[in-house]
Amino acid sequence: MLDRRTADLQHTINEYKQNLQNTASLITAFGQDELTPERFRNYVDSLNLRKEFPGALGLAFARKVPLEKEAEFIQEMRMKGLRDFQIRFISPSSQDRFVMQYIEPIEENHSAQGLDLGSENVRRENCLSAFSRAGLAVSKPITMIQNAHVGRLGFTMLMPVFNKAVPSSDLGARYEELVGWVSFPISIDRFLKAWLAQDQTLQLRISVLEEKQTPALFFDNVEPHNVTLYPHAAASRDLQLGNRRWRLEFWPSQPDNNTPLNPVYLALTLLGIAVSGLAAYQVKRMLDRRDELRLHKQLVNNSSEALIAEDTRGRILVWNHAAEELFGLDSASVLYDQEQNLTIPDELLTSEKRLHERAAQGETLKNIQTLRISDSAKRIHLRMNLAPIYSHNRKLVGYTKSFRDETEARMVWKDIHSLEELIAHAPDGVITLDRSRKIKLANPAALLLLQGANVKSTLIGQQLTELLAPDVLLEFENEVLNPLYKNSRVQVVFNWPAPGHVEHMPLFFRGFALTYPELGESIWALRFEKTNKPYTPSYD
Fold first, then answer.
1. How many Cα atoms within 13 Å fall on the side-chain side of residue 75?
2. pTM assigned to the model
3. β-strands 521-530, 429-433: how paired?
4. pLDDT tens, residue by residue, 220-252
5. At what angle do helices 188-197 and 2-30 cross, to 10 degrees?
6. Which CA distances in Å does 117 have to 63, 75, 121, 540?
7. Could you tell me the strand order of the sheet in which 316-319 lies?
8. Does residue 440 contact residue 522 with C-beta atoms inside 8 Å?
9. pLDDT above 90 coverage of the chain, percent
């Protein structure tokens, strides 16, 4: 039965792929100049997306626009009737534009029209993957621009469009033949809704399998207690979506009674019962003794972390001084109110409810990344611990929450992300390395310099030395990597083996180290370019 369900989903994906192929062939046959806003709208209307392609937020055509022709392209779009057309960027970009020229229905996708897909790493990588494959490419999980206000995850299916039926095998010539891409931006929730409705007894977890990386959880509607109590009850199947592979884990809604329980979970449950029983006994004593209650309040209010206690109906019973400072709300104004009315963003209400359901099952949740809104409407990034509170007779009476402000650390993370965006668009080759000397980031210029014409879509996760011939490996270690990691800086010319050729290519390497103590992370960056000048290395 699971094989049939998986095959049904694979068939659905293949239908989406076939439609993208048909659309790309039509544009190739008639030419992009014949593609007007009205004709594209009429074509999309004829497809009946809502019924035939559930989950697709629309059908789009993204056009490759050389940087020097950007102004000419904008003028062309305005002459076609889109008088307010502008190219919009997620991050600054100095490379060719991959512009969302048309997307229909426009009423639901207005925020996506004009977006430069090449101005954001994940979307640009997906476009280049489809180009290099000359076939379907599927993005990593991303927040859809159309639904960014609610944080809805989805993915994009892309098919390249060329100006000839059979594109060239040479990547350079093929890039000149590239017209753009047709795509389905897809909401994962809507995509799976009808398929899941066919069998109410199954629950599903989807992970995206990336080579040499930990699987990334994409979709999950599995009851948490099934995962912890019955870890062997799931059955997994794999799906192939162009360049990407999904792992489907099916869980029955009511596992068989003969399914073995997780012994680790049982041990933790017993420990939790003991700890919770002791905590409940102490709470009972404090409630009975006024002096101890006063001491308890002092301990809570003197805590550096924001502490909240709620009853099972969500009413706030404790709100300490740190919570007042963090959220800008005094305890008198919030007592017996509900946190969802005060600090929880609307888009997190559903996930917050699921966290409470897990805690109600006896689970203590630690270091949960979450978001809250202060009294001044400021959005605060936090780490939250959530634990259940029991009475002396093991009855659930409420929950405790503690919060640690992570806004500053997240700002540092954004700085790192901005740095990566700048690196991606640098004209020189740039890579970053972790402590184990694995590549964390490699921009397009680095791919060309280190690999020549045989460009892979990514070098991320590879050891840099895997790209070197054995006869120069020791020399590269001594002249470039060892000084970089030892002195945190290097400037040296190294004769890099030209990929696919006998001769060597002199590259001028400049490297430095960056440390982010707030995140406990360091990276080592190498910038390199072709050079004809000899250079004497100097180390700081």
1. 4
2. 0.49
3. antiparallel
4. 877 765 554 455 667 888 888 888 889 888 877
5. 130
6. 10, 20, 9, 40
7. 316-319, 306-311, 396-405, 379-390, 365-373
8. no
9. 22
